UniProtKB/TrEMBL annotation:
The lineage of its organism: Eukaryota, Metazoa, Chordata, Craniata, Vertebrata. It catalyses: S-ubiquitinyl-[E2 ubiquitin-conjugating enzyme]-L-cysteine + [acceptor protein]-L-lysine = [E2 ubiquitin-conjugating enzyme]-L-cysteine + N(6)-ubiquitinyl-[acceptor protein]-L-lysine. This is Non-structural maintenance of chromosomes element 1 homolog. The keyword Transmembrane helix does not apply. The gene is Nsmce1. InterPro entries: Nse1 (IPR011513), Nse1_RING_C4HC3-type (IPR014857), WH-like_DNA-bd_sf (IPR036388), Znf_RING (IPR001841), Znf_RING/FYVE/PHD (IPR013083).
Length: 237
């Protein structure tokens, strides 16, 4: 469609290339990149038009089954952008980068993280599964290296020997996780993104990201669930 193609500029292309090579980009960086690309290409720039700029790119990515998606970091609530391949929503999108054995370890780590109470799995628990892989048993030393690579490639995050899903993984695999873990995967009641590290209402079972909990209950003397209005019994982070 030539009418549509006219709207895309080198600035859009440059922005998309950087986003793809980064894997994931924090919103403040994306805003700087937006300005830089527009100024370099001498096209109209407005600081509050990043979402429109991204929509234009997305309309061109649609036939390629790709999309720039926004998600929030479960750590600090900051927005991030990642390019998602919609044709491969499953762990298979990682298949070109990792061996079947490595992928199996990733799936097992993912199971532990998603089925846990707090959205974390200890390295000990993950490494204990390394010698139970169907493809081929993995030595602990080898498994430690593989986990390191998953952290470097931004599929997992690690803090004090505890692993959780990286923001990039959550943005890219949201659909896969929601359909494969229907009984346990939930969206945050406030921002409606998938919540892995979350607090859950003891009365009605809704979940909220920790940064969303913090924001929602700020300044409230008696925190009450936004859905059922019962007392929120978890400690406010």
């Amino acid at each position: 469609n030539t009418a549509m193609a006219a709207h895309i500029t080198d600035a859009h292309r440059r922005f998309l290339q950087v986003l793809m090579s980064n894997g994931i980009t924090e919103a403040s960086e994306a805003r700087k990149l937006h300005q830089h690309c527009c100024e370099t290409d001498k096209v109209y720039y407005a600081h509050d038009k990043l979402d429109d700029f991204i929509s234009t790119i997305n309309s061109h990515l649609q036939p390629l089954f790709m999309q720039i998606r926004k998600g929030i970091s479960e750590d600090d609530g900051r927005a991030h952008y990642a390019v998602v391949n919609l044709a491969k929503t499953e762990v298979t999108k990682m298949a070109s980068d990792y061996t079947e054995m490595e992928l199996e370890l990733f799936r097992k780590a993912m199971d532990l993280i998603i089925l846990s109470e707090n959205g974390f799995a200890s390295s000990t628990d993950i490494l204990n599964l390394a010698d139970q892989l169907k493809t081929k048993k993995m030595k602990k030393k080898e498994a430690e290296q593989v986990l390191k690579v998953f952290v470097e490639d931004k599929w997992l995050s690690e803090k004090n020997g505890e692993y959780t899903l990286h923001t990039r993984c959550i943005i890219e695999m949201e659909q896969y996780i929601l359909s494969n873990y229907q009984d346990v995967a939930r969206k945050c009641n406030l921002c409606h993104s998938l919540a892995i590290q979350s607090q859950v209402c003891e009365s009605c079972g809704i979940g909220m990201h920790l940064p969303c909990v913090r924001k929602y209950f700020r300044g409230q003397t008696e925190p009450r669930c936004p859905k059922c209005n019962e007392f929120w019994s978890c400690d406010i982070p």
